[in-house]
Amino acid sequence: MIRRFPILAQVGGLALAAFLIGQAIAISFFFIRPPPVPQIKPSEAIAALLSPAGALSSGMHREEAAAPPTRSPTRASDVLLAVSIASAVDRPLADIQVHTLDPTDQPQRVSSFKLSAPDLSSASYAIGKVDDLDKVPSQLLASIAAAYLAEDAPQPAFQVSMRSENGWITVGPDTSWLSLWRGRVLLMFAVSIILLAPLTWWIARRITVPVRALSKAASSAGKSGLDMAEFPVAGPTEIAQTGAALNQMRSALASHAEERTRMLTAVAHDLRTPLTALKLRMHAIEDPAVPRMVADIDRMEHMISEIMAFSRDRQESEPAEMVELRDLVSDCIEAGAYDDFARLMPGLAVSTMASPLQLGRAIGNILENARNYAHAVEVRVGSEERIAWIELADDGPGIPEHELSRVLEPFYRGESSRNRATGGIGLGLATADLAIKRSGGSLVLSNGAVRGLIARIELPV
């Protein structure tokens, strides 16, 4: 058996799957390409050198080794940074090594720093290479290094090593697989999923609410005869058009059914007058065949009465009210004089909303059908979960399995009922089924374990 999911789950799942696939492609792009080399402030490098917590807060990688990296400074700024960091951590310059991870060949002119020595403020030196530092006086070099530290401007990614008691501490940008940069990207994607999931659910719900309303209206169509509610015309264009088309179909079917019922009622009504006159004339004739002819006329009048009752049930609409089912069944048995073969079994009181007149007529039709084929009927009333039920089990011959659903159709007569003694015109159970549907319930027929027919009326509580 194929498992079917609600349309809300399908639309929401499709939207979420599309979003996750897009996010997965974006995430894979970020993880395949190398992370960008970040710029580092001198203060962040100093904090990372002094403590692991500083490295963690700044997102830098910190490790201890027996020897420093074997790289040598490639830019003049490496030496200036080393001088600045050595001054900040109060270490000799020999204990500090700095080298840029992504050096460029363009010379850098240090001209934006405010030097602390007033008598050297007019000096200007082009320092782009390490060799250019030999031209700078030591006092100016110290001022430039102090300016580096005071400015604390982001520098191209560099690595700095400091001698420690156990070797060298080296800090630099985190280039691991799950770096701080990638972690922030993952966090951004996670937050976007959390924020977009409710929006996706809301959009899917807006799309599917009209579909569910349409499905609910379709499932309830026919339970109330010609008084079925209209299909909702709302939601997206296609769903609204479907609702409008179903309303047109509903109107056409209702008109057709009403016209057919009206025609049957008119024919049945017009036949009563000549039949009554024919019966009166029969009584004036002295002939042995007259009693049989009168019996045939009575049978035709009974058939006409059934057609009139069926037509009345299709056209009448009675408001529902709270009904105590055991009392209703007891009244039906007493009113129809079925107490000679129908017995109401003991049980608890069960109440539900239903049309008492139509439901009582349905119970009476089922009892009348049982009287034609069985000698005894046991009636039970109960409830389970959200369903109230009435079960009428007789000891008759039952109905062949292939006819159990068809006997509820109007004018259908089973093979075993096509005789003058028991056979009607096929409206008894059909009328009962229509009346029960008018109360929002259903009539289910089944054969007993040994013999007999079980008619189960189920009503919502």
TrEMBL record:
Pfam families: HAMP, HATPase_c, HisKA. It is found in: Cell membrane. Its EC number is 2.7.13.3. It is a multi-pass membrane protein. It is an enzyme of class 2 (transferase). Keywords: ATP-binding, Cell membrane, Kinase, Membrane, Nucleotide-binding, Phosphoprotein, Transferase, Transmembrane, Transmembrane helix. PROSITE patterns: HAMP, HIS_KIN. The chain crosses the membrane at residues 12-32, 185-204. It catalyses: ATP + protein L-histidine = ADP + protein N-phospho-L-histidine. CDD domains: HAMP, HisKA. Residues 266-461 form the Histidine kinase domain. GO terms for molecular function: ATP binding. Residues 205-258 form the HAMP domain. SMART domains: HAMP, HATPase_c, HisKA. InterPro entries: 2C_sensor_his_kinase (IPR050980), HAMP_dom (IPR003660), HATPase_C_sf (IPR036890), HATPase_dom (IPR003594), His_kinase_dom (IPR005467), HisK_dim/P_dom (IPR003661), HisK_dim/P_sf (IPR036097), Sig_transdc_His_kin-like_C (IPR004358). Its main location: membrane. This is histidine kinase. It comes from Luteimonas fraxinea.
